[in-house]
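Troubleshooting: if your tokenizer reports a length mismatch, compare against these two reference records.
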Amino acid sequence: MTRLVLPLIVSLALAACQSTPAQPEAQRAEVTPLIGQTLTPPDGACWANDRIPAVTETVLVPVAGREGVHPQERLVHPAEDRLFAVPCPEQIDTDMIASLQRALAARGHYAGPITGEWDSETSQAVRRMQAPQGLDSGVLSLQAAQMLGLVTVSRANM
């Protein structure tokens, strides 16, 4: 039994050592402040801006002067821009993207091939992974990259 399991474990460990390409949407510290807020990112930080769409609902309202109701859209939550830290472009290469794809696959978010290329499947998997943490975006956040072990965490942040 050990003769069969040991080669499998070694193969999986070696496969996890591959790396991947860069994420196209990161920009170096060109911050677009959110409405009504002034943001000052740390020097050398990279950020992404994600647009969260407005949430509306359809309600039935009475028709004035007539019997009956008609549908009307009501704003539940306005659209907003969310600024969040992302890995900088020089941190993202083909090897990192491949590692990201493997990490997402190991967690059940990605079922595509490990190509090391940032494609729509990778972006959708990143969105599925980050959504439960409150970031519904296909752009990999720095926090998610750190959680997956793809980017180091400084001692000051521990």
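Reference record two:
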Amino acid sequence: MSFIQPRKCILTKEQLAHFQQSKTHDDILSFVQNLNDTVVGVKLTDECTMSPGVQAILSVLDRVEAVAQDTPPIDNKASRFGNPAFRTFYDKVAEVAPALHETLPSLPKEAIEELSVYFRECWGNKSRIDYGSGMELNFLCWLICLEKLGVVQSSDHVALVIRVFWRYVEVMRVLQSTYWLEPAGSHGVWGLDDYHFLPFLFGSAQLKGHKHLKPKSIHDAEIVDEFAKDYMYFGCIKFINSTASLRWHSPMLDDISAVKTWDKVNEGMIKMYRAEVLGKLPVIQHFLFGSILPWDGPMPSPPSEEDYVHKDHAHIAEPGERNLGWGSCCGIPVPSVFGAAQAEGKVLGAGLAGPGIRPVPFD
């Protein structure tokens, strides 16, 4: 197999439509569905088989967290936005990425360069110091590539969710709280969480058929605290409650709590992921296609100046490339919830939920 450097290939709605009918799109959605189905009724605290591949991936995630611990934020008290030390962290991870991949069993050395691109991008955007569902998608794609190359198997799917993916979320909470990563969007992931989508999808699968816990249980603080360690959904609700008010910060989660069953919630989450992540140009225009997750559609034409203009002004470009995403000129910059909390005199620890954070609106 010949490996290549992943690259962006989608610039237009027509190319997005082609992607939605492609094998790569189907592979991603199938992987999500398979992971989802394997964790129905499974708790985070349940025992599961840990293959050598899974153990190696967990060690890699531990190394990434160690890099963050060794890269403290700089004194940036004047800003409630992303801390520039994140760029140093990003460069350090990029530097050690090849060596980290060499620790993964059965991974061909020729594939390391291709996989390292997804790996680097799953921690956030270096230029904008932000994070959102597109970066989370890069981590998912990294796992898909590892499975296609034999590092993990379909028998590892339970562990990939309740051990690997949840560990990734834990590391991301450290990065979000350490570097005040801005949400990659005006108000996060459509009213779910400022940063993540998949923990709610997998988390609702964990709760399908539960005899006592219902979607409305997210409004009971005691239940949330008790079951946050067992279920991703409640773990994420606890995190939101530690930084903001659920009702104004995550209106969609508030609305979803009125749904009668977790089966319906989970079904809706999968449809929403397909439509709002895999089906949205602002997200998928940044998707990276390589040899493992290939692009088989028409290649984009060289962009014209009109591609970068919005209402008679140019979009902000990232260093080294022309950026088709919305710059701060086209929307409302939103500070990290951690920056907002700090501005109010509260300090959030680098964990899934920090103590003493009162609701602070993004102003």
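Descriptive notes for reference record two:
- Residues 14 and 203 are 33 Å apart (CA to CA).
- Strands lie at 7-8, 130-131, 182-183, 288-289, 309-310, 313-314.
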